[in-house]
């Protein structure tokens, strides 16, 4: 399906993650003309009510447009989702991904799921992403070679070559933060408060030393000795974890060291988290950072994949 | 108070941690003649009922012996405990600690609390221990110089010089394990099962690479790709965390690198956890490891501190 083919039908792009469901309605030239969102992420769906959740969000879009095609990315393609969409191995371009869509039968319109991406690290352990590949293909459009960071619950650092995902690594930064904030001894000392830039920066400095398990206990002692106020401790922890992530990503094997000299690093995320990463990267000496809005990248990625897919035209 | 002075009165040693309370009754020569235990750790004590919990465990010991003296160590001396016993700074020997006991008024007998120990790391962040110092002074008796590991919720690596604690570091290994096992996405893939030595060893190998946040997600993928069985995943995680701890402790600044060549490393702990650490240390090339029973070390440490203290003789 070429760009003009997409205009022949109508594309609805779906970003369906663990906790949120977001729909983009495209016009024939790829412009997003409407966006809708609900809290029906896959963990909130009961009794496999995926189709009902989708229709609750955008049945009117489907009904009002002949030949609607639906393209979905994210955890909806995981084992806990609607149907498991097998991973495409690295290296993988948007064209590779577009050839490996998984079809779902719905009662209303043809629907497809973008595969996640897998890679085997040098130590033999697998890494995977699901959803971020679509964002990445929306964020690197014109870049043959790039480094991309997609911060979050499971932060991804992605190495782009020849417009494809060559390699990537996952860091459990966001999940560790939540666990430590909500369930650990460290969290008990903290008071909810706005982001504290000084405490965050202090955490980054320590985190950049690496050695995370050895530094986490310092969150407790900095609190115990009243060197960091309870209202600033969560920002210190956040800085510590992001600093440790940057240390790991840049000290690790293979091409990751090139991050240090990469001309531009793109961060895909919301303004708040991307800003924190930009500040932390600057402390590590990486200042050429470009922020890409996550929703915008997802929409563009879904459109890019759709326009390269011949599968979307297959008869039902 | 010399050894013979202790025999003049009677010593009850108390190891009072967050979740357990353990009492040792000594004869006049330091032999433990009776041990009792309850679940009245400080987090389980309501309305500051510390004295009641102590008496419930060993009132009869106190009543039946004239001039009983009680010496306590552990979290009972923390801010959440009976009374806060200020930290003694490093370097600290058992003699230093014996001069800085904190007195508590009870209705039955003089009682004292052993101070915790604090140190400031090269990056300016404090580290603290409370309870382990007493175990250490019971475990290093004749060693002028040694390295000691006290694994646990907050694992300690201790550098001993001139029979005193010169420096130490805390690793949140045990707490991270519990958090990840009970509350994380990783834990959801796990099935409770006996220790799996192969999966543990595989985790240690990866953990020894350092870079913990970058390896944790592998627990998920090794499960997803069915390379490690759900019943073995918890052992893999445990190995990963202990491997990362060993990496951090031995790659860090200052004297810690000497651990690699230390003639003997002592591990204070229960048989199960000490055995896991011994196996992991062997994978890291450290084979001269001696296991010390934690309860035995605590009892000996309490006795050692008591026999060096002049405070215990002070009139009430």
Please tell me about this protein's structure.
- The structure is a homodimer of 316-residue chains.
- Chain A has 316 residues and is α/β, with parallel strands linked by helices.
- Chain A contains 10 helices and 15 strands.
- In chain A, a hairpin with a 4-residue loop joins strand 1 (10-16) and strand 2.
- The longest helix of chain A is centred in the C-terminal third of the chain and has 19 residues, at 233-251.
- The radius of gyration of chain A is 21 Å and the shape is globular.
- In chain A, 53% of the residues are buried.
- The A-B interface holds A 79, 121, 123, 125-128, 154, 169-173, 175-176, 179-180, 182-185, 205-206, 209-218, 221-222, 224-225, 227, 241, 244-245, 248-249, 251-252 and B 79, 121, 123, 125-128, 154, 169-173, 175-176, 179-180, 182-185, 206, 209-218, 221-222, 224-225, 227, 241, 244-245, 248-249, 251-252.
Summarize this entry quickly:
The structure is a homodimer of 316-residue chains. Chain A is α/β, with parallel strands linked by helices.
Give the SSE map:
The structure is a homodimer of 316-residue chains.
Chain A: H1 3-8, E1 10-16, E2 21-26, E3 32-38, H2 50-64, E4 68-73, E5 88-89, E6 92-93, H3 94-98, E7 102-104, E8 111-113, E9 117-120, E10 126-129, H4 132-139, E11 146-150, E12 155-161, E13 164-171, H5 173-183, H6 197-207, H7 212-224, H8 233-251, E14 265-269, H9 271-283, E15 289-293, H10 294-308
Parallel strand pairs in A: 1-4, 4-8, 5-9, 11-14, 14-15
Antiparallel strand pairs in A: 1-2, 2-3, 6-13, 7-8, 9-10, 11-12, 12-13
Helix pairs in contact in A: 4-10, 5-8, 6-8, 6-9, 7-8, 8-9
């Amino acid at each position: 399906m070429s760009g003009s083919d997409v205009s022949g039908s109508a594309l609805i792009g779906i970003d369906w993650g663990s906790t949120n469901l977001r729909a983009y309605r495209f016009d024939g030239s790829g412009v997003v003309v409407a966006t809708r969102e609900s809290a029906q992420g896959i963990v909130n769906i009961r009794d496999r009510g995926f189709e009902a959740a989708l229709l609750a969000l955008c049945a009117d879009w489907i009904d009002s447009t002949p030949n609607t095609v639906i393209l979905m990315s994210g955890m909806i393609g995981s084992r806990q989702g609607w149907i498991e969409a097998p991973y495409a191995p690295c290296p993988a371009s948007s064209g590779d991904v577009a050839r490996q869509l998984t079809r779902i039968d719905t009662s209303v319109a043809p629907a497809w799921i973008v595969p996640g991406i897998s890679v085997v690290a040098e130590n033999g352990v697998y890494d995977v992403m699901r959803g971020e590949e679509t964002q990445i293909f929306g964020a690197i459009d014109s870049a043959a070679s790039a480094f991309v960071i997609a911060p979050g619950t499971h932060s991804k650092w992605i190495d782009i070559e020849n417009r494809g995902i060559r390699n990537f690594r996952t860091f459990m930064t966001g999940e560790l933060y939540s666990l430590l904030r909500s369930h650990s001894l460290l969290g008990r000392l903290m008071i909810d408060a706005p982001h504290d830039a000084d405490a965050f920066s202090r955490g980054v400095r320590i985190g950049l030393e690496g050695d995370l398990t050895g530094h986490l206990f310092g969150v407790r002692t900095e609190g115990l000795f009243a060197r960091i106020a309870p209202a600033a401790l969560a920002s210190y922890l956040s800085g510590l974890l992001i600093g440790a992530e940057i240390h790991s990503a840049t000290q690790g094997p293979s091409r990751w060291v090139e991050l240090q000299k990469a001309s531009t690093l793109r961060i895909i995320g919301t303004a708040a988290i991307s800003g924190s990463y930009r500040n932390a990267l600057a402390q590590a000496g990486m200042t050429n950072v470009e922020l890409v809005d996550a929703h915008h990248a997802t929409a563009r990625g879904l459109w890019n994949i759709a326009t390269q897919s011949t599968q979307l035209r297959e008869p039902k």
